[in-house]
Known about the structure:
By secondary structure, the chain is an alpha/beta fold. The protein is 35% helix and 21% strand.
Amino acid sequence: MNELELKYGCNPNQKPSKIYMADGSDLPITVLSGKPGYINFLDALNGWQLVKELKEATGMPAAASFKHVSPAGVAVGLPLSPVLKKIYWVEDMGELSPLACAYARARGADRMSSFGDYISLSDICDEDTAKIIKREVSDGVIAPGYTPEALDILKSKKNGNYNVILIDPEYTPLPIEKKQVYGVTFEQGRNEIKIGREVLVNRVTENKEIPEAAEIDLIISLITLKYTQSNSVCYTKNGQAIGIGAGQQSRVHCTRLAGSKADNWYLRQAPKVLELPFLDDIRRADRDNAIDVYIGEDDMDVLADGRWEQVFKEKPSVFSREEKRQWLDQLTDVSLGSDAFFPFGDNIDRAYKSGVKYVVQPGGSVRDDQVIETCNKYGMVMAFNGIRLFHH
């Protein structure tokens, strides 16, 4: 099949709409269920590239949770701790396959942003992974294959209308890519740069020690940034992205946004949050929203009289700013990647507040010395990789 007609483009008024192969070849995808739309395919194809590359770089199954052409979460298939199982809402599912762990991590890092995501999987979707997908609000999934059990589960989602895409893992796109804006055709070579441990060799700080786990985290951050709308910054820890700041005009705003998401990820693991007395029949999305408000600055929106009764069995105590800072001070050994150079040391100051110890960025700013000096002040390790990873 060379082309596939879509319901509409980015918006319902944008018709006609289709995807097709300009060279006359067959599309590398097959729709197994549902009717994916224009944005679904943008998310699916960007996400597939990310997880395919991440699997090649780490040797581990990878998953991504995409929303509006940027990842909300990315992870490899490392086992989940009891606390992560709890905050990712999979503690009732027993032992999970590595691929299922990867998606639980990707989905769970920023659950607010992942609501209604498009899922990308590096490996054949198994039953464990399909069971997690089944219970979440999601638009669809793309993978290089599905077990019969997994496909049956996914096809039953949304009354049989859930979008399931099969991608040919052997497909290789042409080396030149094109797109149109306002009737003008843009052409460029595909970004085929490979990201591995060799990009971490040029360590410019006084501290040059990066343990193997942090090297993997830095690689995850860079591959994630390669498929994230620029400007972008990515915080990672223990095999997953924990905060992604995408599409900001100012780099320090990227760092702040991603840092606030990393903070939220860690605050959700605080005993005070884990012990929140939710009503038994509260819906998953309402529970996520309540936690996000509770750990934020507007906590009275969920703790005020007449509000808390809709969510909790009993009124929780306030999670004070001092308590939150004390808990966040325990977050350490976080890795941070940037898709372009840091122009000022204020990015490093903000990153330090979220436990960052390892940094990778292209370098090349006229203020590199200032940024290096700021890293040295905090005992961080920073590598210059010389690679810009803008994506638009």
